[in-house]
Automatic annotation (TrEMBL), chains A, B, C, D:
Protein's recorded name: Glutaminase
EC number: 3.5.1.2
Family under the similarity heading: Belongs to the glutaminase family.
Acetylation in keyword set: yes
Species this chain originates from: Pelosinus baikalensis
Length: 305, 305, 305, 305
């Protein structure tokens, strides 16, 4: 298997040349555009990997999954449904027009920025700090990595350039979708986007989802089964920004990408997969990362469809 | 299994009271709103069913799948990608605004009306009649039902009230997405929507997709495997109109609905499923049909996620 | 005055180099891009002119004014208000998205294509031919030119490339805004756009509006006063496509432009003005024509504001 | 004349029953819905009035005119044009979708909220306090009322419920339309909306615009003539929210309304007019105020068209 992964990395590394690093958050521009790595964890906790698996990157939008899991755990689905939908959209991840034109002001799904910001308000916590710690603690649990840290430089950069997110949040506050302090909620959002991870960390999130909530290494249930299925469904329809539909046809795995270059993918009952490749395509997804997953899906016949 | 299906039908029949028959095509208004039936075919060609499985209904949008399969068979994917995308949308199935505002005029996917109309132009045929016969013949093959007929009254009704579809088609002609005669292409579209089927017919389409293209009763390959995966992926992200995301979280099967009340669902490697229930929810999906599939998915653990 | 006009033409003729001829209707592409002419008629029926005043051009969207006057004459304003609004829009003249998203499907105003098409259905006439003749006859009356003709080549070209207008019309038919035969209504629309005129013809329409409905040369009332005021108000807010607001600030006259290169402008109580200059700006207005009107307005202090 | 105004107030007072007080800013809900008053100032500084001319109300959006005049005075039109357009729109005054979909992120005009917020950034002032004082001072000058005050309760209410405006401002900051501190700019915006005025104050602004910038009582020029014409043009196309086009056809005067119930109208070379009537129609305009202006325009033949 490691041999297969090695070949796939080699076959697709040249794709890193065709993408570009995210620069709208200045600190992200420092990433290595040529990095490419892949990490698999299976149900027996075997690990396979190839490429730049030690590259550290900020988790960015992949954190939306963790926040969504926490909200689904802490708040009943009916209440959540009044705040966010779970419908895919072809709009950009930071679109605000859809809040005005469609869906009576509700964010269309928790994988776009508006939805993720609203999701944070549904997580348990008497204070904003408690909300953040609740999510961050769960992050460490599900990755089995108690040493996760926030990348301070990226967090500061996110916060100082986060005006589009402020616009989304204030819009939702003006329509009664959220009620909390905008800067406090965004502070949590920016911090969660700035968590440093490697491929292995996100592969470990993936394998828990693949195993419907039970960590293969501990046999401990850390997520409810019904929540795992909701999350994988939403990843499948909404996880890859405006390229979600195309990804479903070519790769066919529930997945979530981040502009830090990571992709978390899940093969139900088989694998959790983490990929890193900071050079992005026009939709904001790792360009070579998608190619790696496409070849992997094809060679091992991993599409869920 | 028939016992389970029987219980599910009984548990959910009262939901038919909460929906409404489609009336925008006058002829559809004649359907029986209380009908509810379900039909399963498995990989060994065993058949299970309960409820109103003899109810005949017009296939409507479920035909979009058949047309898409024919286009994928006759035209290479690269060429298709220049005409239609495969991205889900939260817009209505007959939306025209997205052709103007988004995606440089391309229909977002082949499951909405604009996309389905464009798909027809990609099917092989020297004449419009040949195009129609090519799709209709494939319909009979994949349902294993050589006796399929067009419901003339519905076809006339579709055609005489099809001005929104004319608008979509002329818009696409004005932007160079389609080049054919609008009335000829729509004539094929209206006819395909008007094919009379029962649950069994659509379950048989489903089982071929579940089996990646090989009919379980004949062992004959009738669809390429890669095409089956593309089609199931698109059904999963776009098949249930503006309720596709919600359906993925509650049922978790590739599916396609029609305003005639049918739902075709696929459990890969396991079942093709046909449901009928003409009373519709606000998204245009069979309201009780979704409930039947929800309970079925839950009791037999059929979600692909 | 002729001296002033001569200077203004000379000062602005170089602007014709910066514009482009409309080409989406192939026949329009044959116009002379360098032509520039201006024609004034005052309340005493004095005529002043300079430049290419003999250039014949198709009236195009300027005909929307004539159609609107006929509809206002034949149908009470209350009934008209149920079919079209009189609100300006920043959308393109052929936009269809606004029919779906805004204003409950009503065209926003009679100066954009959707509104003009709907306006035709409000003109008196038992047959489509009668409707056309009613408008065409009024055209000849108000221009005092019984020899007006349809440019057959342009009419054919409009009709064969008019799919966007077909899309608009079928959309409105699907939402009950119009009830007539689409091709028949469009046939009238295309013919009216194809009327051959010179600057003098449109200046003569302008002077009737300037004089609140009475022809200065005959003292005959040909338009009701209240209708003149409605039409000039709508020209002021909607007459110059997506450049209407800018035109109001720089020129300050009720005006209507056409992609044939004509601009009809009105200085209430003073002048009717016709301009020709087929090279267009990005909004579809005569680029040098606007400059001529800007200088004229400034030198003679003609802004109504 | 006072007799005519008296009759007009009486004829239209019952219209106040059909409207509703603005309540989205809680403090506005305290206004008297039955109030109705009108005030005219002519070029010889004669004053005519009838009805509740002593009713004090907050100026709200009418302040957008004053801000726009200051910006036009302090910044050249070319620079302004890079930040805001002057194109009318059928969108709501607080629409954000048009910033995303149209016009490359520029606010469409200075009379909608986004445009007005951006306009403030174009006013001279080394500090935010200087910017505010520059506009407020001009306010006192042009109304000839040195005693104008801010309504503190309304200002606090505006600020605490101003999240939609925060959303607009942060959106524009994210796209580089504005560069200042959002809360500082909005602070100015909220204060300017909260200025207490009477009909007389706004009639006095109107008469200066009617007289192309010269105060009739002092013969002092307080606004450049070209700026007056730009402002009146923009009022004519954009001043009455989404009812601007309709107002042009029925009243035909440059005007600007505010949700406090005021309307400032201008009859060039003749009158400045102030109306108060806090009961609003669906577009946010004084419902009886429009009726008063409609009758006044009709009886005195005041339409500019």
């Amino acid at each position: 298997m490691n041999q297969v992964l090695q070949e796939i990395i080699e076959n697709n590394r040249s794709w890193t040349e065709k993408g570009t690093i995210a620069t709208y958050i200045p600190e992200l521009a420092k990433a290595n555009p040529h990095a490419l790595g892949v990490y698999l964890v299976d149900m027996q906790n075997n690990e396979y990997f190839a490429g730049d698996v030690h590259t550290v990157f900020s988790i960015q939008s992949i954190s939306k999954i963790i926040t969504f899991i926490c909200a689904l755990t802490d708040t009943d689905f009916n209440t959540i449904s009044k705040v966010i939908s779970v419908e895919p959209t072809a709009d950009e991840f930071n679109s605000i027009a859809n809040l005005e034109i469609k869906n009576t002001n509700k964010p269309l799904n928790p994988m776009i920025n508006s939805g993720a910001i609203a999701t944070i308000t549904l997580v348990k916590g008497k204070t904003y700090e408690e909300k953040f710690q609740r999510i961050f603690h769960f992050f460490k649990l599900v990755t089995d990595n108690p040493n996760l840290t926030i990348n301070e430089a990226i967090y500061q950069s996110e916060s100082s350039t986060g005006d589009r997110n402020r616009s989304l949040a204030y819009y939702m506050k003006s329509t009664g979708i959220i009620h909390d302090e905008v800067e406090e909620i965004l502070n949590i959002y920016f911090k969660l986007c700035s968590i440093n991870v490697t491929c292995k960390d996100i592969a470990r999130i993936g394998v828990v989802l693949a195993n419907n909530g039970i960590q293969p290494y501990s046999n401990q249930r850390v997520i409810r089964k019904d929540i795992c299925q909701i999350v994988k469904a939403v990843m499948s329809t909404c996880g890859m920004y405006s390229g979600s539909g195309s990804f479903a046809t070519t790769v066919g795995m529930p997945a979530k990408s981040g502009v830090g270059g990571g992709i978390l993918a899940v093969v139900p009952h088989k694998f959790g997969i983490g990929v890193v490749g900071p050079a992005l395509d026009a939709s904001g997804n790792s360009i070579a990362g998608i190619k790696v997953l496409t070849e992997l899906s094809s060679r091992l016949d991993l599409s869920i469809y």
